[in-house]
Amino acid sequence: MTPLLLALGASAAWGLADFVGPLWARTWGTLRVLLWGQLGGVVAIGIAVAARGEGPRGAMVLLAAVAAVTGTAGLYAYYRGMAIGAMSVVAPIAGASAVIPVLWGVARGERPSAVQVAGVVCALAGVALASREQQAESRKLAAGVGLALLAAIGFGFYFPPMHAAGEVDFWWTAFVFRATTLVLVASAVAVTRPPLRLRPRDLAICAAVGIGDTLGNALYAASARSGLESLTAVLASLYPILTVALAAAVLKERIALLQRVGIVTTLVGVLLISG
């Protein structure tokens, strides 16, 4: 049960960070928020690793750098999708990223129980139900869906290498991931040269977003020590539930009937997977 709780903790951390970050990026710009967020995350996990006082327990932690490449691409697409579309639409579609690690885990020989398989199906179906936006006359593809699908692909290929690295040493895995992400984002900033200056209060918010995202990385990597990849990845991918709930409560985004059905279906999936 502990690996599943850690994965759910990762989902909660990501859900909050993935609401606040894209919300502020609508005003400040995606790369500006991502850069300061990565700096905050690197400092936080760097302090934790230094306080631990141990080196990495194996070279496999370097797989986190591979996860950072796909994860950063997914995160950029996610932020951009949130900028042009409703959070309550983009977030659930991005959560469908769990399809990739589930298939990867099963291909490697993992065998979840029948009840847990049913939970996986429910969870994946739930996060996919927001792909269409219902209007008075018809249903059309919602704004930001294309970017959300790109985010799902990027996030999906984040899970297998991150899980493998986390089995070795989750502290150093989280550090390698965040440091690599910072290098990638800083490189994009160097090329595009967006404005970077922010007020101290705004810098603190961006740093908090990065710390929350890093906490999610660390919790997911920790769940890899004894949890099935095909289950922990699905649970960690349930962050859209919190993001959608915050969008409804704070931004008053209207949640369509299909989205409400998706949230309920996803929650049922969580209960079945955790059972």
Compressed to H and E, one letter per element, the order equals HHHHHHEEHHHHHHH
- How many beta-strand segments? 2
Strand portion, in percent? under 5%
- The radius of gyration is 18 Å
What overall geometry do the principal axes of the alpha carbons give?
globular
Q: Mind summarizing the main beta sheet?
A: 2 strands, antiparallel
Query: Strand order across the biggest sheet?
Result: 1-2
Low-confidence stretches: none
Which structural category do the helix and sheet elements fall into? mainly alpha
The count of helical stretches stands at 13
- Average pLDDT: 85
- End-to-end C-alpha gap: 9 Å
The helix content is: over 70%
Account of the 3D structure:
The protein is mainly α. Helix content is 76%, strand content 2%. It contains 13 helices and two strands. It has helices at residues 2-28, 30-52, 63-84, 87-95, 99-107, 114-128, 145-156, 159-166, 170-192, 200-223, 229-236, 240-250, 257-274, and strands at 132-134, 139-141. A two-stranded antiparallel ribbon has the order 1-2. Helix 2 (30-52) runs antiparallel to helix 9 (170-192) and helix 4 (87-95) runs antiparallel to helix 6 (114-128). The longest helix has 27 residues, at 2-28. It is globular and about 50 Å long. The model has no long low-confidence stretch (mean pLDDT 85).
